[in-house]
User: Which sequence fits this backbone?
């Protein structure tokens, strides 16, 4: 157990040392004794604090989440409230000076009350407000309580490890959260208005030139005689669209502030397209790719399929895989070790330093207690996959790697489009949410795939990610390697200078980005694709939306 002196204790200690020093210089035993007595009193206060806090912990000082659920689902940009309860089973009251969350950095959390007192044999209700600016499966790992032991000169941090999961879905799918999956909800699959497609029907679509394989009964003999060319009648039938949504989830698209990165907006755009066509009763498929195919789901319809697509948009865009993460196996092991220690019955006291095999085994044994059940991420070894799966199961973030993967993802797009062409049922609408091919070598395979889609009468729409929101103010101040805020630009003249430099740098990057986007749009138009722009709808910063949020 660690004890930290309060400011009063620090001042008293400095005063005691100063008095003792003055007594030694003056050779006055009374003054030296006075200073020594003050130091002895500080040591006694430390011992009393240690005993009182140990008594509180032994009596059953604990934190519990209210309600039976350990996972909540919410839409991106929303704020939810979770209730917790701090119980003090001791006969003495416990006063705390700070209550802070231990949670994923992808969540922004405030707690009320942040300071107070837990009565003897009493309970304290705590409200935890969680703002979710980014999709994903994030964890609230517990609460840290700083207790003042008697006589109040020392603080003792107490950590309550009680994992809680927050699954953040794309904003357009927020309305699907309370949606039922059976019974009358199945009627939604047949709602909406069907579209028209070429095939057997009663309505004539057009007259076109005869092609090998056309049946003779479709030949328009009179029209053929008038024009001197063999023409056939093309009919159309009513059917629902078969829609494919293709999303580029390259790691560099995560670059930017929470909720304003290009991939944040791209995921919302892909979810909006899926929700719109599903509400019409169309069949919707989803393909998520980067340097590899992250998800490929055949078209289907209905609310249950919408839930499946929403879940894939959350999990397939994550960065827990070794090829997408900035953490190597040693970094992953450190995070697992720090998180696992309070959950382990022995506190990992019997685990030798550097024994990653045993750490992976212990982590795998504790993983069933996690709020999420993800599939094993990609890893260079079974041990690394086990450790990375632990991070994903408890919602511990894994930062995206710094190296870009646009070179591989450009060629992967052509493969995904070719696979869509071969899939059945045949696609009628394809929405691509991705940047344009960045290299000339990537344009040809993508163009060939688009031509094959056109021959199958599929319309292609391309939505370009928006980079502007991540480069506009307000800008987040720089942070240290551990994620904590830097005190060098916290306030004062350095803060003003930093904001001015940040504005100039952001403007320069913004100009280059807009030029690159305009060139990309020209490339897509040369490919014969209809280009649209994603609406720049971002989540409000908590400090602007809610003065209580941080």
Assistant:
């Amino acid at each position: 157990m660690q004890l930290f002196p309060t400011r009063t204790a620090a001042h008293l200690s400095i005063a005691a040392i100063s008095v003792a020093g003055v007594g030694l210089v003056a050779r006055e035993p009374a003054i030296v004794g006075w200073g020594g007595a003050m130091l002895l009193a500080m040591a006694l206060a430390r011992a009393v604090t240690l005993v009182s806090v140990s008594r509180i912990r032994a009596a059953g000082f604990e934190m519990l989440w209210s309600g039976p659920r350990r996972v909540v689902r919410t839409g991106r940009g929303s704020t939810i409230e979770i209730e917790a309860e701090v119980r003090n089973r001791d006969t003495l009251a416990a006063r705390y000076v700070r209550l802070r969350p231990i949670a994923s950095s992808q969540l922004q959390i405030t707690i009320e009350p942040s300071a107070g007192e837990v009565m003897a044999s009493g309970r304290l209700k705590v409200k935890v407000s969680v703002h979710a600016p980014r999709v994903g499966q994030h964890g609230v790992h517990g609460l840290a309580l700083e207790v003042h032991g008697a006589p109040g000169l020392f603080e003792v941090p107490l950590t309550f490890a009680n994992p809680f999961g927050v699954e953040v879905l794309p904003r357009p799918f927020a309305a699907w959260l309370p949606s039922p999956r059976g019974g009358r909800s199945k009627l939604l699959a047949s709602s909406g208005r069907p579209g028209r497609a070429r095939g057997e029907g009663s309505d004539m679509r057009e007259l076109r030139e005869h092609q090998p394989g056309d049946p003779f009964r479709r030949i328009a003999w009179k029209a053929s005689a008038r024009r001197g060319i063999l023409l056939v009648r093309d009919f159309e039938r009513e059917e629902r669209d078969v829609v494919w949504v293709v999303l580029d989830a390259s790691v560099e698209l995560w670059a930017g502030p929470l909720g304003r990165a290009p991939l944040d907006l791209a995921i919302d755009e892909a979810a909006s397209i899926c929700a719109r066509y599903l509400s019409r009763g169309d069949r919707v498929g989803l393909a998520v790719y980067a340097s590899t195919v992250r998800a490929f789901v055949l078209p289907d319809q209905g609310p249950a399929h919408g839930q499946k697509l929403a879940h894939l948009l959350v999990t397939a865009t994550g960065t827990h895989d070794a090829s997408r993460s900035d953490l190597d196996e040693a970094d992953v092991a450190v995070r697992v070790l720090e998180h696992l220690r309070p959950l382990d019955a022995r506190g990992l006291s019997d685990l030798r330093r550097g024994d990653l095999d045993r750490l992976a085994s212990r982590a795998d044994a504790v993983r069933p207690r996690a709020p999420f059940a993800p599939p094993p991420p990609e890893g260079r070894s079974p041990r690394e996959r086990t450790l990375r799966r632990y991070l994903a199961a408890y919602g511990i973030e894994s930062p995206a790697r710094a190296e870009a993967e646009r070179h591989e993802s450009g060629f992967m797009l052509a493969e995904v489009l070719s696979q869509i062409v071969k899939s059945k049922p045949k696609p009628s609408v394809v929405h691509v949410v991705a940047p344009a091919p960045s290299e000339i070598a990537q344009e040809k395979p993508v163009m060939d795939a688009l031509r094959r889609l056109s021959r199958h009468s599929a319309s292609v729409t391309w939505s370009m990610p928006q980079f502007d929101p991540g480069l506009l103010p307000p800008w987040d101040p720089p942070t240290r390697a551990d994620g904590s805020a830097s005190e060098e630009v916290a306030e004062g003249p350095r803060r003003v200078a930093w904001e001015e430099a940040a504005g100039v740098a952001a403007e320069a990057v913004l100009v280059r980005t807009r030029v690159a986007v305009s060139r990309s749009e020209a490339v897509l138009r040369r490919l014969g694709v209809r280009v649209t722009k994603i609406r720049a709808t971002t989540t409000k910063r908590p400090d602007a939306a809610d003065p209580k949020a941080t």
Notes: The chain is about 35% helix and 25% strand. The radius of gyration is 31 Å. The chain has a mean pLDDT of 80. The first strand starts at residue 4 and ends at 5.
